[in-house]
Amino acid sequence: MEGRSFVSSPPLWAHLGAAPIGALTPTPVYRRTEEDEAGWRRDVIALVLIQFFCFFLFCFKFDAMAKQYDVLFRLLLLGDSGVGKTCLLCRFTDNEFHPSHISTIGVDFKMKTLMIDGIKVRIQIWDTAGQERYQTITKQYYRRAQGIFLVYDITSERSFQHIMKWASDVEEYAPEKVQKILVGNKSDEEQKRQVATEQGNKLAKAYGMDFYETSAFTNHNIKESFTRLAELVLQANKKDLEVLRTSINDDLNIAALEEEEGMYDNHGDSQKACWC
Ligand SMILES: Nc1nc2c(ncn2[C@@H]2O[C@H](COP(=O)(O)OP(=O)(O)OP(=O)(O)O)[C@@H](O)[C@H]2O)c(=O)[nH]1
After folding, report:
1. Can you give the pLDDT at residue 75?
2. What spacing in Å lies between the alpha carbon of 99 and ligand 1's midpoint?
3. Could you tell me the pLDDT band of residue 239, with boundaries at 50, 70 and 90?
C-alpha cells in the first residue's frame, strides 16, 4: 500500500505515519506522500506569516497609542458648590452647557489634548464637589495635581471670600510646585454681579496668580483659561520635561487604558456625569 493517498482528508493519526493499534486492521498503514509534505510546509509557512502579521499589527497599534500625546498633566477645579466648575469643564471638553445644577458627588474627570509649543499635552481635568461634606474625598486629589483652578462666581460675594479658604487648602495639601489660576465664572450675568473685576484682579495679584473672568454659558475665556494653566504647568516642568516624559509613562499608559476601557470615563468617584 506504499504511496497510497486518500481522496478525502486522511485521519489525524495518518499524518504520524502509522495508525493507533486498535485501528490498524483492516485499515492500511498510511505513509506521507510528497504532496502531504508540501502541504505541511505550506501550513507552517502560513502560520509563521500570520504570527508575524499579528506581531507587526500589535507593534503598530502600541506605537500609535504611545504617540497620542507627549506629556500628561492633572488639573483640578476647586471652588464653592454652584460656581460652575462642572459647566466650565463640559464647555471646554465637549462644548456643552446645561442650565440645571446637579451637585457633583466626590470627583469626576475628563480629558483633552492641547498642542503647546509643539508638545502634545494631554490634560486630565478633575472636577471636584464644592460641598463641604465631600472635602475629605476631594482633598486626596490635591496631592497629584500639577495645576489648580480656583473658581468663584462673580454673582456670589460669598464664593469669592471662600477663595482664601480654598487657597489655604491648596497650600496645605497640594505639591509646592503646583500652578494656580483664579477664575471668576458667570461673567455673562453682569446684572447680578457682586464681585468687581478689579477685586478679582487684586486677589489674583496678591496670590501671584493669573486671573480670568469666564462664562461657561457664552464660552467666554474658556479655552484661554484652560490653555493658560496648561502652559504654566508646562513651563514649570519644562526643565524636567524629559524626566517627566519617562516618569509619567506609567500614568500615561494607565490613563490611556482608563480611557480605552472607559474605567473612569466621566465618572471618577462621582455620580454626576458631565451632562451640562
Ligand atoms: N449664567 C451662567 N450660569 C452658569 C455658568 N456656569 C454655570 N452656571 C450655572 O450654575 C449652576 C451650577 O453649575 P455647576 O457647574 O453644576 O456648579 P459646580 O461648581 O460644579 O457645583 P458642584 O458640583 O455642586 O460643586 C448651574 O445651574 C449652571 O447652569 C455661567 O457661566 N453662566
Report:
1. 97
2. 7
3. confident
Q: Cβ atoms within 10 A of the Cβ of 242, count?
A: 9
Residues with CB under 6 A from ligand 1: 81-87, 99-101, 103-104, 129-131, 185-186, 188-189, 215-217, 276
Confidence of residue 14 (pLDDT cuts 50, 70, 90): low
For the segment 157-193, what is each residue's pLDDT rounded down to a tens digit? Answer: 999 999 999 999 999 999 999 999 999 999 999 999 9
Q: How far is CA 91 from the centre of its chain?
A: 17
Smallest CA separation from ligand 1 atom 16, residue: 101
**pTM listed for this prediction:** 0.72
Cβ atoms of residues 90 and 276 within 8 Å: yes
Residue 48 has pLDDT above 70, yes or no: yes
Protein residue whose Cα sits closest to atom 10 of ligand 1: 84
Furthest CA-CA distance within the chain: 103
- What is d(CA 43, CA 38) in angstroms, rounded to the nearest whole number? 9
Write out the three cell numbers for 126: 478633575
Pick the range with the lowest mean pLDDT from 44-58, 71-85, 113-127, 257-271.
257-271
